[in-house]
């Protein structure tokens, strides 16, 4: 019944567009050099990053203009622990009583750093683990990153936060290791695991060895569906991420909720230079303004037209497609400015 009513729910949600998740990219500095990085992050700042004072003023603004009971902030990067003013920024979130979570690559998730986040009131942590040791270290570009991420996962599991999950970027090198990764996570009492595919953006744009072909994508879907069936009575949640519209039967087998790209509908982001967008990895052509010069709430309420009415995406492989009404051009992070069309159709790949 929920899936049958989903089109109505999506229409109402798009019309009302309540802001539920706000990504806060506090820096693009990073302690790793990952092969698939969509933001092309380095150890140094790449943009005119917001100052600590600008971020704190924005946190106070959010407290004044949004219902804190309905809004969750997701602190991301880069690598958040690399932000020069990490403690002061997170102290500000606590001071303004804003609920927030943290996304990290796990490399700096030491006892001390985890305690810093807990002391500042973190509600959730998401950690990346991209295969077994050799595959993870290869993708992350740093020997030893697997052990450090796994140790960080163990620490977070022991901390018993309200929400904790692990995410993995599936590629041809680690596709055959999913059973092993699942075993590691379940042994460490990880409650939830989300799987992503890598898309052709940033450093991955011209690196075909990172991308699943159609047959491999199908293999991934079959594996997730089979494992979800086997795990349905276990306290371990496995799902495919929100990326990509899938054939309905596959969607129901690999996700808890029907596909819905909520970018610009209930999800926004403020990038490290103040740019206002939706998910952090979207094309910069979709930026809606900048908090240094634009009122954020006005931008959210009256901007984002391209996110809420996506008929402009009905071109290239989407032109004339009978599934466009449900798909809406696929996830917006897959939009390719150079080709002026979606970079990949998951529905076509799996049919």
Give an account of the 3D structure.
The chain has helices spanning 2-16, 52-65, 86-95, 111-119, 133-140, 145-159, 178-187, 214-231, 248-254, 296-302, 305-308, 324-327, 346-349, and strands at 21-25, 72-76, 100-104, 124-128, 163-170, 192-197, 237-240, 267-270, 275-277, 289-290, 335-336, 341-342. The protein is of the alpha/beta class. The chain has a ten-stranded mixed beta sheet with strand order 7-6-5-4-3-2-1-8-9-10, with helices on one face. It has a two-stranded antiparallel sheet with strand order 11-12. The longest helix is centred in the middle third of the chain and has 18 residues, at 214-231. It is globular, with a radius of gyration of 19 Å. The two termini are 25 Å apart. The model has no long low-confidence stretch (mean pLDDT 93).
């Amino acid at each position: 019944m929920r899936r049958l009513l989903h089109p109505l729910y999506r229409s109402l949600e798009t019309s009302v567009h309540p802001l539920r998740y706000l990504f806060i990219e506090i820096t693009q500095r990073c302690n790793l050099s990952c092969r698939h990085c969509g933001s092309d992050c380095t150890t140094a700042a790449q943009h005119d990053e917001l100052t600590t004072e600008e971020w704190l003023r924005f946190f106070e603004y959010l407290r004044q203009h949004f219902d804190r009971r309905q809004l969750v902030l997701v602190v991301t990067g880069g690598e958040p622990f690399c932000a020069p003013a990490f403690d002061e920024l997170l102290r500000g979130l606590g001071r303004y009583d804003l609920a927030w979570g943290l996304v990290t690559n796990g490399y700096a998730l030491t006892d001390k750093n985890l305690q810093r986040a807990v002391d500042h009131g973190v509600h959730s942590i998401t950690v990346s683990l991209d295969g077994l040791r050799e595959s993870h270290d290869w993708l992350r570009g740093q020997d030893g990153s697997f052990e450090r991420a796994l140790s960080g996962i163990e620490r977070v599991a022991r901390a018993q936060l309200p929400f904790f999950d692990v995410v993995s970027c599936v590629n041809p090198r680690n596709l055959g290791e999913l059973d092993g990764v699942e075993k590691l996570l379940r042994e460490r009492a990880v409650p939830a695991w989300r799987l992503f595919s890598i898309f052709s953006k940033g450093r991955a744009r011209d690196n075909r060895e990172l991308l699943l072909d159609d047959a491999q994508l199908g293999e991934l879907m079959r594996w997730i569906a089979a494992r979800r069936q086997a795990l349905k009575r276990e306290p371990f949640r496995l799902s495919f991420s929100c990326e990509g519209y899938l054939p309905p039967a596959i969607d129901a087998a690999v996700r808890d909720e029907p596909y819905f790209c909520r970018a610009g509908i209930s999800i926004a982001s403020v990038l490290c230079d103040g740019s206002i967008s939706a998910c952090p990895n979207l094309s910069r052509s979709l930026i809606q303004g900048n908090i240094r010069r634009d009122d954020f709430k006005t931008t959210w309420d009256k901007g984002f037209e391209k996110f809420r009415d996506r008929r402009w995406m009905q071109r290239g492989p989407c032109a004339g497609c009978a599934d466009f009404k449900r798909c809406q051009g696929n996830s917006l992070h897959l939009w390719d400015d150079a080709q002026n069309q979606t970079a990949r159709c998951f529905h076509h790949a799996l049919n």
